[in-house]
Amino acid sequence: MLQFYFLSVLLNLIAGFILIYASDYSSVKNDLESADSSVLEDEFQELSEEEKSTSEKNSDSKKSKKSLNLETFLQDKLFCLVTGVLSVLVSIFLLLSPINGDVPVIGDLIPVLAGFGAGGALLLDYYSNKSNMELNLPSIIKTVFIDERKYLGVFCILAGILHFIFPKVLFL
């Protein structure tokens, strides 16, 4: 169906941009847990009252500017979760319903793999951020989906662009 074709292209592009430009939530979580809270409190107390009021005024103006910033939009946890779930679902439906004249299953193999990979990386990132338990993942999964996720993002963007340009090519 053409709807799943379009959604596959769109979600691969969006998920690719998220994987490239958004920060890795699991590394941010580990950094926050390892930071000593007393050090943070000491640094906060060193700010003078004048700096606090100035920073509050600047933060209000930055919040209004920040809402329009694309990078903060891509780092929204709920948006990443929805994109991850939709990427996996659209990839499943793209496998099950090929476009007329296309070979079933392998006709859209690269965009489906990109969708599964991006969706898995985004869901794993969201789960590791929300979970209190330590994830014990195999090294290959940790390397591909967490440490080197920017390369997965580039693969997703390339798959989305090629899938859009060459709709009838085998594997695309």
Task: Explain this structure.
The chain has 172 residues and is an all-alpha fold. Helices cover 76% and strands 0% of the residues. The protein has nine helices and no strands. It has helices at residues 2-21, 25-34, 37-46, 49-66, 70-74, 77-96, 109-130, 139-147, 149-165. α1 crosses α7 (109-130). The longest helix is centred in the C-terminal third of the chain and has 22 residues, at 109-130. It is globular. The chain starts with a helix and ends in a 7-residue tail after the last helix.
Question: Can you give me a brief rundown of this structure?
Answer:
By secondary structure, this protein is mainly alpha-helical. Helix content is 76%, strand content 0%.
Break the fold down into its secondary structure elements and pairings.
Layout (H helix, E strand, L loop, with lengths): L1 H20 L3 H10 L2 H10 L2 H18 L3 H5 L2 H20 L12 H22 L8 H9 L1 H17 L7
What best-fitting shape do the alpha-carbon axes yield?
A: globular
Count of DSSP strands: 0
C-alpha-based Rg, rounded: 20 Å
Uncertain residue segments: 31-44
Count the DSSP helices. Answer: 9
Average pLDDT score = 77
Percent helix, as a range, is: over 70%
Structural class: mainly alpha
SSE order, as H and E?
A: HHHHHHHHH
Percentage of residues in strands? under 5%
* Major β-sheet annotation: none
| Termini separation | 15 Å
